[in-house]
Amino acid sequence: MKPLYGPAGWSALGAFALVLFVVFPLLSLAVPAENPFHLSQYWVTLIGKIMCYAVVAIAMDLVWGYTGILSLGHGLFFALGGYGLGMYLMRQIGREGQYQSDLPDFMVFLDWKELPWQWWNTDQFWWAMLLAVLVPGLLALVFGYFAFRSRVKGVYFSIITQALTFAAMLLFFRNNTGFGGNNGFTDFKRILGYGITAHETRMALFAATGAVLIGTLLAARWIVTSKLGRVLTAIRDAETRVAFCGYNTLHYKLFVFTLSAVLCGIAGALYVPQVGIINPGEMSPANSIEIAIWVAVGGRGTLVGAIAGAGLVNFAKSLFTVWFPEYWLYFLGLLFILVTLFLPQGFAGLLRHTRAGNR
Amino acid sequence: MIRSVRQRAGALLGALALAFFGLPAHALDAAAVGRLAFGDGDERIEAIGALVAAGEPRVRELLQALADGELQTAGERVLIVRGEAGFDAVSGERIAPLPAERDEVVANNRLRSAVGAALASLKLLAPERATRLEAARALSGAVDAATAPLLRRALEREADAEIRSLLAMTVASLDLASSDRATRLAAIRALGDSSSASVKPLLAAAAKDPDPEIGSAAKLSLVAVEGRLKWGEIGGLLFTGVSLGSILLLAALGLAITYGLMGVINMAHGELIMIGAYTAYVVQNAFRQLGLFEWYLLAAVPAAFAVAALVGMLLERAVIRWLYGRPLETLLATWGISLVLIQGVRTLFGAQNVLVENPAWMSGGIAALSNLVLPWNRIAIIVFAALVLAAIGLLLARTRLGLYVRGVTQNREMASCVGVPTARVDTLAFGLGAGIAGLAGCALSQLGNVGPDLGQGYIVDSFMVVVFGGVGQLAGTVYAALVLGFGNKFLEASSGAVIAKIVVLVFIIVFIQHRPQGLFALKGRAA
Q1: Which of A188, B164, B86 lies closest to B172, judged by CA?
Q2: CA of A100: which chain B residue's CA is closest?
Q3: ipTM above 0.90, yes or no
Q4: Of B100, B312, B420, B438, which has the fewest Cβ atoms less than 10 A away?
């Protein structure tokens, strides 16, 4: 089998890991706060958040960039993963909520006497993690099975995935669904017994997210360089021909769609403890479309491009929202238009193009 | 055992002593106040009932303080704290200085609604007729048994016939839960004269009573009430269904044309609707300046069409044209356009909603039945949608542009071969679709708020109509809009708005599995 990366690629990855696991923790924990090199909690949270988005971008790239399926419902899988772990975090608050009850505050507010069935066993971390992975995975499996079996594709698939996340958002906005209605979950106190706002906990979550990101990148790289990945790309370029060659395209599409949903679920579960809130707004169609633009900016069909795109767009977003919030939508909108018009391969394509031109 | 009797006797003696001596004139029942502040859910509700029944004027102040979050406890004492000033909740005396250790009394949803009902019932004793009428209306829906004594007292005092009948109905629905058989029977007969929808579930529950006489009386009353309500309900449901259907039709018609023609999903369609609504707003303001407010719609309709059509043609020429054959990219690019348009409108008009008023002839409505009012603005929009549909139908069937549009929709290459200028047809048709969206916006401005996010709410809905109806034929869009409008309203009546919307979305998702081409696909080689 071909190696995943050449020597240059591996050393770049090694340097990235070194920065994530050694340099950042040192700067954040060992360097005192008044030192200019100190990494404040704001930055740890921001970079951790962006790494969660990068995992989502890789997941999106697998289905869209490599297999040609534009899903506008990936925000739903992300949010479901977040809600899965969020339930555990709500249970961990214990009696420290506003009402000093064993139940989460919003249930006391609704005058509920016991936990609804969805919350069964959610005081166990492993169960919550399992939910965060299984629920998005199962939903994607079932939904994908029916959609791909009846050959829903192209724009139609995009639209029904959008309808799916829209429907889910409405469902989660209801108080009776049992997930806190439009306030969602917030005010978390601790995770696995450690205070959730403590600097060390934040750093541990940061490192876990980094590890997941690197793991995801390697797994995705392994998939796209394998024979499986070849078939996926072939499905993107000429699905009918692949089917005529004797491949059951349903299985391949279903596999990649489900895997992508699971990755989003994991990213969501890592996102919630770092950001400290999850609400149905995460499921709004706009969020899912934004995922597509991260991938498009970085470059579809290149994994590093997807990560870079997620980083660039979200970094720009946090800059804009601090300095001139009213121009963010202009910027994002123009990004959508200009990238699709002039950079169909994203920045990765641009880079490749200039490199080829120089040669 | 003996001890507990002795204790109770002691408590009784203490209470008697209190009654003979020290009670100040306007003190509240201290035990009830204590239960309200320290008790659990049911005790607190009971305490509210007890306090209201006692009828002291200061109860109102106490409950208002609870509703406003001004009620606090300090040890055993219950305080009303406003800013720096504190008052004892029982005696009303001012307390200075305030104790340092205080806890807020937190009210959950159930307690809040009980407090709300109690406050409303206290208003029944107000001297002004309007206040009493409002309170009687507010209470006619659902009341707690705790407020029953007060309601009865209000009914005895009341002289006004309208308020009396409202109160009598409310009291009767409370009496239904009484343990006395004769009271219940009388209540059931009284409720039979009601024409309010809220008594139906009460009577239906009473009809299942094991006592045969009560059961049959309740059934009779239920039939009487239902007969009075039935036609109004059916009519109302049909009307709102048609109304929603016509709105969906207006919103989706333009999208169906552009999608059918070019196979691209225009995510900025909702924003074209929004532009139409804002055009109506601008025209309204200009006509108000001229003193011709009543006539502004005459100009607003063509203006909304023209402005949205211009924006649409501009978009087609500048962006969409360059993305042919890449439908997914078109989707993303038009989404970007929609973001820019939303923010552009925010910059121009502000993020707040703007007010578009109905002309005088559009406000009010026809009272068709006792419980059915057909608002004029909704009727006007149904008629308007029908007119737009007829115009588009004629345009597509009878004009050269319509012929071209149909030709390009069916087979672009072939149309181009026989000399149809497809590029120009695309621009014009896109302008037409955008113009219809503008008309939809003008219509929507007559129904509700106009804000930068107006279009967002309609994107998913109008896609669903297009997807459900299939492309290439107007009939598909019309049927789909009406079916979804009716479906939504009927489900809403039985299971609530959110569930209805979810059911419709899931239905469409399932439907596409079976008929990816929609209800009315073009048949034969053309498709």
Answers
A1: B164
A2: B106
A3: no
A4: B100
